[in-house]
């Protein structure tokens, strides 16, 4: 008897479903960091100092970590299915984003709501005592309301993240699942790069600064994300109609099934590796530009010159798109000559991108190469995992690269502070290697989860991993800041006593110890990776096996 073909057996339809999910995540990742590149403007336009800015940014993880929203999101996903949760997460993201937009809009200034926020939310019983409150006495009203919006958005975006991962498992299990997840993550990284470039662009458009324009740009993208999820809803419904809704209805999810996840040793190892590895990446990303400013001497191009203008930003972004597109197309051709051509274009694009970054003499443009390499090679590595396996080995190798990079930033880069080109060259090579590590680990980690837990609890499994990961993402930016202050007492005192200006202080920090701390996270991740490989061998978890069934 021949098996009835379904939508997912058609490669074009399967990849179209992925495109909808990945585009929604692309838009979400843009909003996630929308204010990060305009910290200076938030200070000058809305009076947010570093504490207000950092507290608002940290609010993203608050409901997920401390009110366990992510755990509920996982249960909702396993009970209600992918299409319902996709719509719900798209709606929640949009509501949070609109609140954040209103908080920074001109209309909020002088409103009754502003007065209310100024006088309230100064003390949150329980959370204040533990030092985890997302508000504090004296926090600007706009930052408080933006924090409320951002914590709602944070619930939506993490819910969307686990939904998209489960959706990819649904459409790609037994097929090119790692390539699909790698491609989705590549688009997400492109989203981060897009945000870094276009958020300041919109804020300063037309020569007049308006920070709410950047957030409005993000809100429009989240409307597009919701549309993507609505279109996906109908595809998913059709697939379920064809498969008899096998995955989500035949064996309904029960809360006690979560116990099965927690009793899996492999699951705990992957969750631990995830929190250790990502804590050394995402929190570092928040400080990396400043770390480069402290370790390199820049000579900015003359005001009004080509290198100082906006045109070069647009050109760099176009090059980024070309590199991303050629690297992606590389996965879908088997013709050797075409592969060589695509690879050559990618490499030339990357070199030109780096050269332009060097000529602009700014830490932001040098660090911009970090997501670019991940955009290019995550899908390629995903394809390797699909066809050759070796996920556990790749997790170990990615951790080794992470350790090497953080130690290079800590001990080698400072030696080249006075060399005009040497420091930039070392920074580029190290950032590129870190980008390779940031491709190796995600490309092998996320597609391994379906091998460790039952299909019907996969949503809860991703949610639990994200929850554990979010604890690290909340904790480590704080720890980096604290270690930085404690190991730079001179800078802190000079700033307090007005011996140096905030601008001088900002580029005077020694980053050695925060970087050593991040390298230690890499060492811990490597040890977990070694244990995982051993457990995989003994218990036959299949992590080293290819995903594609022959
Ligand atoms: C797929 C994975 N996503 C995550 O880890 C999310 N929890 C997003 C965290 C973003 C924090 N700003 C990834 O992006 O590799």
TrEMBL record:
GO terms for molecular function: transmembrane transporter activity. GO terms for cellular component: lysosomal membrane. It catalyses: L-alpha-aminoacyl-L-lysine(out) = L-alpha-aminoacyl-L-lysine(in); L-alpha-aminoacyl-L-histidine(out) = L-alpha-aminoacyl-L-histidine(in); L-lysyl-glycine(out) = L-lysyl-glycine(in); L-aspartyl-L-lysine(out) = L-aspartyl-L-lysine(in). It is a multi-pass membrane protein. Keywords: Lysosome, Membrane, Transmembrane, Transmembrane helix, Transport. The keyword Magnesium does not apply. The chain crosses the membrane at residues 12-32, 61-77, 84-103, 145-165, 186-203, 215-235, 261-281, 314-333, 340-359, 365-382, 394-413, 425-445, 457-480, 511-532. PANTHER family: MAJOR FACILITATOR SUPERFAMILY DOMAIN-CONTAINING PROTEIN 1. Homodimer. Interacts with lysosomal protein GLMP (via lumenal domain); the interaction starts while both proteins are still in the endoplasmic reticulum and is required for stabilization of MFSD1 in lysosomes but has no direct effect on its targeting to lysosomes or transporter activity. Belongs to the major facilitator superfamily. This is Lysosomal dipeptide transporter MFSD1. It comes from Butyricimonas virosa. The lineage of its organism: Bacteria, Pseudomonadati, Bacteroidota, Bacteroidia, Bacteroidales.
């Amino acid at each position: 008897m021949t098996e009835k073909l379904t939508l997912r057996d058609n490669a074009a339809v399967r990849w179209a479903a992925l495109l909808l999910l990945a585009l929604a995540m692309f838009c979400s990742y843009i909003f996630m960091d929308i204010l990060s590149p305009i910290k200076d403007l938030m200070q000058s336009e809305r009076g947010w100092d570093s504490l207000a800015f950092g507290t608002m940014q940290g609010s993203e993880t608050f409901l997920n970590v401390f009110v366990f929203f992510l755990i509920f999101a996982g249960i909702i996903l396993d009970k209600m299915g992918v299409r319902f949760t996709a719509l719900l997460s798209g709606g929640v993201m949009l509501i949070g984003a609109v609140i954040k937009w209103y908080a920074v809009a001109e209309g909020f200034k002088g409103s009754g709501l502003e007065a209310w926020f100024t006088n309230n939310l100064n003390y949150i019983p329980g959370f204040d005592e533990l030092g985890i409150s997302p508000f504090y006495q004296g926090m600007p009203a706009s930052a408080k309301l933006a924090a409320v919006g951002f914590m709602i958005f944070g619930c939506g975006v993490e819910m969307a993240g686990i939904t998209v991962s489960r959706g990819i498992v649904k459409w790609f299990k037994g097929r090119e699942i790692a390539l699909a997840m790698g491609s989705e993550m590549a688009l997400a990284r492109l989203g981060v790069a897009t945000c870094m470039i276009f958020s300041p662009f919109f804020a300063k458009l037309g020569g007049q600064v308006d920070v709410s324009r950047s957030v409005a740009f993000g809100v429009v993208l989240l409307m597009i994300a919701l549309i993507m999820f609505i279109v996906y809803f109908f595809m998913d419904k059709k697939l379920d109609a064809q498969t008899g809704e096998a995955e989500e209805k035949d064996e309904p999810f029960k809360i006690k099934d979560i116990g099965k996840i927690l009793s899996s040793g492999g699951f705990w190892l992957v969750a631990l590796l995830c929190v250790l590895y990502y804590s050394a990446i995402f929190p570092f990303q928040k400080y990396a530009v400043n770390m480069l400013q402290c370790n390199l001497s820049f000579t900015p191009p003359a005001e009004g010159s080509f290198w100082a203008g906006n045109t070069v930003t647009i050109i760099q972004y176009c090059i980024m798109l070309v590199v991303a597109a050629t690297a992606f197309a590389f996965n879908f051709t088997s013709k050797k000559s075409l592969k060589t051509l695509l690879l050559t274009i990618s490499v030339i694009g990357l070199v030109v991108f780096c050269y332009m970054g060097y000529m602009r003499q700014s830490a932001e443009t040098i660090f911009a190469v970090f997501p670019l390499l991940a955009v290019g090679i995550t899908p390629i590595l995903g394809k390797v995992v699909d066809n050759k396996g070796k996920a556990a080995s790749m997790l170990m190798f990615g951790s080794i690269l992470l350790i090497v990079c953080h130690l290079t930033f800590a001990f080698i880069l400072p030696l080249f502070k006075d060399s005009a080109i040497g420091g930039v060259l070392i920074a580029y090579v190290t950032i590129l290697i870190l980008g390779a590590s940031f491709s190796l680990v995600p490309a092998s980690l996320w597609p391994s989860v379906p091998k460790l837990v039952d299909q019907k609890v996969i949503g809860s499994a991703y949610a639990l991993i994200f929850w554990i990961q979010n604890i690290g993402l909340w904790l480590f930016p704080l720890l980096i800041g604290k270690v930085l202050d404690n190991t730079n007492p001179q800078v802190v005192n000079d700033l307090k006593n007005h011996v140096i200006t905030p601008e001088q202080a900002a580029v005077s920090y020694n980053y050695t110890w925060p970087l050593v701390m991040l390298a230690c996270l890499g060492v811990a991740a490597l040890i977990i990776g070694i244990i995982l490989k051993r457990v995989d061998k003994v218990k036959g978890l299949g992590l080293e096996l290819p995903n594609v069934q022959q």
